[in-house]
Amino acid sequence: MKAMLAWFDWLFLACCLVHANPAVAQQEEFTGLVIDQTISKFGHDFYDFFMAEWEPPNDAYILTIKERPSVVLGSLIWIEIDDIVIYESLLTPKISANEEKAQDARNFALEYINYRGKALQELDLY
Predict the structure, then answer these.
(1) From 1.10.3470, 3.30.160, 2.40.10, 3.40.720, which CATH number describes the 31-125 domain?
(2) For residue 27, what pLDDT is reported?
């Protein structure tokens, strides 16, 4: 519930900024949003590794990195783009392995967003 209220606070602030200076709002266009919903240190490290070399594409998307910690398995991490799960993996205590997983996830997410953008453009042609 607190996360939802914080999200509404940000939304309200963004609306206030848009109405305060409409010229800036017309010039700047938000194309993508990355949301961190990780819980553990391993999850936060994964997010940091993921975002370290993130080059946001020009397509519209909402990318969410989620985590479910587990004592037995480690942390299950997954990435959703527009509520579609595109990547899942188990995080381990080994930092270098998690860094490689984050790089793979980042590459996969970029490929997915670019492919989806091309597919949507092709649909608009017909």
Answers:
(1) 3.30.160
(2) 56
